[in-house]
Model the fold of this input.
Amino acid sequence: MTNQSLAKANNLEAFWMPFTANKAFKADPRLISRAQGMYYYTNEGREVLDSASGLWCCNAGHAHPKIVEAIRAKAGEVDYVPHFQMGHPESFALAARIANMLPGSLDHVFFTNSGSEACDTALKIAIAYHRMNGEGTRTRLIGRERGYHGTGFGGISVGGMPNNRKFFGSLLPGTDHLPHTHNIEQNAYSRGQPAWGAHLADELENLVALHDASTIAAVIVEPIAGSTGVLIPPQGYLERIREICTRHGILMILDEVVTAFGRLGAGSASERLGVEPDLMCMAKGLTSGSVPMGAVGVQKYIYDCFINNTESGVELFHGYTYSGHPLAAAAGLAALEVYQEGGLFERAREMESYFEEAMHSLKGEKHVIDVRNLGMMAGVELAPREGAPLKRAYEVFLNAYERGVFLRLNGEIFAIAPPLITDKSHIDQIVDVLRQSLKAID
Ligand SMILES: Cc1ncc(COP(=O)(O)O)c(C=O)c1O
Done:
């Protein structure tokens, strides 16, 4: 290496970090060199409890030995197989396992490499389905304010996070948005699904009246909005969206990138909440975060429409070089086995009431204006500091990190979602540290 390239290798400048305040991070970096079970280990060897399953993905805990072994073995056996006109047995096996886990007739699985790609794939399948089905005018896509569907152009167009949209031009044409459901005046400190807000689903009827059903392909919502701060659906809300979609021939896409694979103590939020979508986006917990992979669950009638209406040749002109990558498929199969053998979804369900009590014990702490939860997900919302929005929560985040707990921060909201292997002492530690940090910060 030349002196110049060594100097480059030794600094943090080259990596333009995603969704990160690069200047602040690089001035005071938090580097993690190892992860095991519930913990991260910093470069200096300090143990940091992970309260967020990484980014809602490491549901089996970090570096689960079975998943590690499956990846290791597969890497030595087959590095890559294209899935364009070729196949690898384990990606078929994984698709079957996922389909088996999903409710109703979500019998088919399309593989992607991320949640963003899963969302864009689901949106594209929805539009293409209507065209295949003789309704090519249905191209409009409806999302929701405060929705997050990744960072592809499809995802940000239906998403409802202003900063994720405003820098990126005119986005997809023909999108519209439902109102979000978050209302602290009505629903503060709700445990489980809040009582107020099902009527907000009726806004979909207004959008149908405005645009006409014949122009609308799909509605996409997260069952629980994760990235905008754990917004739990009001009782009856998702059911009403489902009814309206069915009534008007609009496909319902549930973005379960966060909620599938045990986060709510079931294979999916759809199963837990009893609302079956036409298409379901998944990622994250699919491989327990170990290898990038996303997927779209597809109803049998949609898949059949493509297969039956294509004389011969390719039925869907869409896919990725790494769709169903052997390493990801091996990691996914191992993760599903770990979930099943360890009874981790059931364990999450059992832990839910302890988690709920612990999180709600933060009510009354300085700055806290709401706590909400469902499954192993909770949001703790802080009042912004006057004249300095986001500063207080960021200081609490830094303070907690120094005390040995990694918290996931979304604006003024902490999203707590520990790995499903968590036990009561970990939950106590998260809450104790958050409490101390709240007390320490003005
Ligand atoms: C609901 C939801 N959809 C999509 C995504 C995007 O996933 P990825 O970052 O893997 O592209 C995320 C990521 O957090 C998410 O929470």
